[in-house]
Fold:
Amino acid sequence: MFDWIPALAALPVLLGMAFLTWLASLYKRDTSIVDSVWALFFVAVLLSGWQQPPVNGPRAVVALLLVGIWAARLSGYLTWRNWGQPEDRRYRAIRASNQPHYALKSLVIVFALQAGLAWLIALPMLPVLKSPAAWSGLDSLGVAVFVTGLVVETLADWQLARFKAQPQTDDAVLDQGLWHYSRHPNYFGEAVVWWGFYLLALGSGAPVWLLLSPVLLTVLLLRVSGIPLLEQDMAGRRPAYRDYVRRTPAFIPWPPRDI
Structure:
């Protein structure tokens, strides 16, 4: 049985965070600051659930540690990457296609939407916090999968940052390291992180329907706001990217095809 009380208590917290971030975006005229807050939504769900009865179970500290490390790294990296930069191209496109009154519309279509999605994806955290069940092999597997995804995501972001810092032509494409085997290893790592947490939730006795949470994140990355938007932009700006697409898997790392 899933306890909805901690979940419902967390929702207004996330919406409040989204509202404050929206106000900051109006001042900066930069919607992309929501990227820095995305990971913090998950910490907010965790801390909100932590305060709710019953007493936190044996996995609570592990959950807080894992999610805290993940969120600090991702939020810190995105803040550093975007600092002093103009609004991200993806959000400029959203801004252009939602005129007039984008400033007001963005509260719903960007900030409240992302808060709601984060809430849905974070639901498996709550049974992990409160479960009294003994630690099991499934829990250990979940932690191992989570850490693997975190390492992949971190390494991919580091390789991308190093590539961008080097002198390059406008047509240059990163196809080394993890990016030799996947066009989006950072997104793959992100998905693996939350599949790992889902395994930890199963070890806590969470209902199977919470499978919808990692499935939702994976679909968003593969079909909605992740790969499609980024690749549409890249293909238009860098002609060499088309060859990269033909030979390199989009998501799951795999040896590239010969063309």
The two ends are 52 Å apart (CA to CA).
